[in-house]
Every structure is written in C-alpha cells, then in structure tokens.
Amino acid sequence: MTDIRSYEQTGEAGFGDYVALLKPRVMSLVVFTAMVGLLVAPVSVHPMVAFASVLFIALGGGASGALNMWWDADIDRVMKRTKGRPVPAGLVSPQEALGLGCALTGIAVVMLALASNFLAAGLLAFTIFFYAVIYTIWLKRSTPQNIVIGGAAGAFPPMIGWAVATGGIGIESVLMFLLIFMWTPPHFWALALFMNDDYTRAGVPMLTVTHGRRVTRNHILGYTLALVPVAIGAGFTSIGGPVYLATAIVLNTMFVLGAWRIWRRDEDMAGADGYSVEKKFFRLSLAYLFLHFAAFLAEAVLRPYGWGGW
Questions:
Q1: What are the structural domain ranges in the chain?
Q2: Taking each helix axis from N to C terminus, what angle separates 157-166 and 118-129, rounded to the nearest 10 degrees?
Q3: Domain covering 14-168 in this structure, CATH number
Q4: What is the tens place of the pLDDT at every residue in 121-168?
C-alpha cells in the first residue's frame, strides 16, 4: 500500500478542515471529562485557572488528533468512515497535520504547566505521547489488543483535571480513569462489529478481524461485566452519592443487558436487522459514559446544598 504521508495536497483547505484535524468530537469528550475531574475535586480552583487549564487540555487532545490523522492517513483513505478526513481527502497535507500536532503539543503542555502545575502538564504530555506513539504508531497496527491498551490515552483527561485542582492523584481520579479505560473496549468493539469490512480493507488487526465476531462478542460481555464494579464502586467514594449511584445502577443494568444481547446474537442474522443490535449498544455506550460523568458533576453541584454526597 502506498504511504499517503508522501502524497501532496490536492485541494484548498478551509478553517473547518483544520478544525476537523483536531477531532472535535473526541475533543468534546476530553473537555467534558477533564472538566468533571477538575470540578469534583475537593480543592476549589479559580475560574480563570480552571478555564485556561481545560482549554489547554483540549488543545492537547486536538494535538493528539492531528498527529493521529498524520500517521493514519494511509488507512483512513481506504475506510468509508474516515476517507473524508482532511488528509486522505487531499485538503490538508500530511506535513501540515504533523506540524500542527507538534505545535499544539508544545503550546498545550507548556501553558498548562504555567496555568496549573507540572504534574498536570506531565500527565498531558504523557497522554499525547501515549496516543500518538504507543497507540497510533505502534499498537494500532500490531496487535488485536490495540484498543484495550490504547484506551488508556482517552482515560487520562479526568485524572489531569483532578491534578490541576489538587496537584496530586487520588483514588477518585484513578476510578474515573478506570471507568473510561474499561468502557473503551466494549464501546469500540461494538463499532468494529458493524464496521468490520472497513478494518479488514485497511489491514487494521482489530479483534473482529484477527479472531472473528464470536470471540469479539465474548470479550464485549467480559469487559462489560468487569466494568460494572468499577462504575458502581465509584459511587461510594467522595465524588459519589445517591444521585450517581442510582444513575450507575440503571446504566450498568442496561449496559449488561445490551452486552448480553450482543453475546446471544445469532451470527446468521444479516444486514440491518443483525447489525442493529451492535449499533444500539454502541449508541448506548456513548450515553453511558456521558451520563456517568454528568452524575459525578451533579453530585458536586448538589453537595453544597446538602443534597449530594454521602
């Protein structure tokens, strides 16, 4: 396969194309979970420091996205889901994507260190390195466990937000990390089940490609069951409370039932009827993570009024 990183820019990029390089959907998740990690911490942060810190964490997430698009342009070009991205579409050159990613990395890490503390900045630097190098360049193309190990990169933002506020790492921030880390495999494997042809064409060794659909379904159920005690357990820490715990019980019941339906899915089911099971679970997984962190935030907001927390 020709390496698209040697291709030339063939179109004229607009501002929106450079924004697309930063993966704004992923960035929105980074911003939200980092903000929650910061706001639920037991130490108050000046609003300007909080705003600046979340902004620089977002820029770090955008840097990771640009570096990912630079390196993955060759496989993005052959996948239906990603072929319209700025680099494979010829709107932004690979060199521009690399330059933007490196520049934003430097700005984000240095400015976060100045705005908050060196631990938060160090965690941000490690997150970018982990996503761009460990996951994108190494794991993604070499092992079917790519999304399991690589999922750590997406799990660091709430830990970074917590470090901004406290200057340290606590059991609460570790549990927020683990919540995202354990959620990532079933979330992405559900996507891989109904996008398997894309990964096969691109030669990405997703579990669905290397071990088949049945093994992937087994793994989804296994990781979902392992996720439940992490999600429920967080409800009994200082960032939990009755609102969070009730939310977590409902969501995890639905998530386990969804994983069970995927596990029981008849492999002979074809087309839209068959894939609807995975698509419903994938959509549920998006709501699952958002609502857990929204519940953490609700506990923090209600606690001063005596309505949240234990």
A1: 14-168, 170-310
A2: 170
A3: 1.10.357.140
A4: 999 999 999 999 999 999 999 999 999 998 899 999 999 999 999 999
